[in-house]
Model the fold of this input.
Amino acid sequence: MAALSLSRLVKHFAGGVIGVDDVTLTVGDGAFTALVGPSGCGKTTILRCVAGLEEPTSGEVRIGGRDVTWLPPRDRDVAMVFQNYALYPHLTVAENIGFPLKVRKTAPVEAARRVRQAAELLEIGALLDRKPAQLSGGQRQRAALARALVREPALFLFDEPLSNLDAQVRAQTRAELVALHRRLGATMLYVTHDQVEAMTMAQSVAVMAGGRVLQEGPPMALYREPASLAVARFIGSPSINTVAGRTTGTRFEGALACDARVGACTAAVLAVRPEHLVLGPAIDASRASVVLVEPLGPESLVRLRLRSGEDLVARVPGEASCRMGDEVGVRVAPGAGLCFRAGDGARLA
Amino acid sequence: MPDRRARQALGYAAAFVLALLMVAPFLWMLSTALMDEFEVYQAPPPLLPAAPRFANFPEALTALPFTLYFRNSLILAAATVAGQVITAAMAGYAFARHRFAGRTPLFAVYLGTLMIPGIALLVPRFLIVDAMGLVDTVAGLVSVELVAAWGIFLMRQYFLSLPRDMEDAARLDGASEWQVFTRVALPLARPALATVALFAFIDAWKALLWPLIVARSPNLRVVEAGVASFHGMYYANWPWQMAAAVAALVPVLVVFLVAQKAFLRGLAFGGFK
Done:
């Protein structure tokens, strides 16, 4: 295994389109980092630059300390799992898994042993003689993973590998991938547009937008202390509530009000996680009407509309005590409001 | 519902008429091949032979050295198929997947050649082959058929329709560019390859003008030339000619029936259908 480091990576496409804009990122030896962001934010381009499938305009890619920026894919010791699996349809599962060994001229006996080992690790030992067309989505994903595992690469790259699976198989495969990472201790860079996937799987998450990394850190650090409004909005489900207003230096005043010691008087946006909205009597609180109550079992989501027109969502434990059409008071839990400067969205407090 | 059924019936009727129009010349050819030498000249010409004369087949095929002609046609067809499949696959892949200076204009030039009628190329081709000293040789016979612009076009379109991820996966798996082409791209392009091969075979098998001009000695004569030689300036033996034509058709039919499925899939991709 080996660490990956990207240094000031830039990728411009024809027509002046900026794919990656000055990205510096490190994935430690044996670490699992997720690149997350909306479509077109440059995360797959970074992955392809690391794999050698795309040449960067400038910058440096190092794997295990070795500069691989201009090396062809085959010389980088990198394996990649693609969104659509990219299995070779004319080959059996065993031939697919063994393909990297065959083109690298591994001895047939050794190759067969490693194919079987990889297949057993992913529990597809019984499917080795089938063609990809005869497999389910989950089985294809496992075959693609086995093909990546079989040659024990220095670095694993994943390009939205779960997005073609149905919800149940996706959740199961998510857990299996985490377990696999623990067992192998492999260095993994994982690209996804699904922040839940990134949060639940990776040790470190890099949120991207417009070709740049907005913030990188452990998932919960990003959730609790987002550096910008864009990160706050992208991380968390349901999305964070936002209300426009002003800071007075010690408080935020707007459709919602709360303490905010930002030391500046400026136009601002208050962001509050759904679990940090407290519902109660409408005395000394902002008033809102209940638009919808969504019971989820252990918790309920209460969708609200403030009198000023802003929509909010609150997460309450168990069953909600309010009903659709009720008038309730909404407060921000003490110390839970996050203030961002209006305009550039930079964090104030 | 009745409306839909009536439309369906009308569709089948139209398809039947079209199919009949297509198959009629072949049926007439078969019927003539079984007629008496003088029966074909009756007015009005009969649709069916009074008494089928199967002896026309052995007589026609032994009147001229057809075994030799079939062999020559087979050599021409095999070389044409091999040449066109290899060049179309390689050039089509290069045009579809590789970036190189002048790729688009060069492809336009290739496409442009499709607009030049073959007959216009006859004299320049002959002059070139003659200058190379290849007139009346097997090399001269097959030389002009080894590359087909339409085949390159078809293969390029097919490769463009294939997802790139598989080729990228192969590159990451450690495959060289040659291995990516031969082990991943080519096996995936089988339907298009079958189409190119079939068209090449049919084109070569029914070639008459070029073989007639470039191959002067009787030893290099092809089947079509043999079939045509039953038709003289003053006399034509129609039953023998048609019997030979039916025999010449058999290999094409066999090849077509064997590769029909892949052929149609390939056609649909190339937009030739």
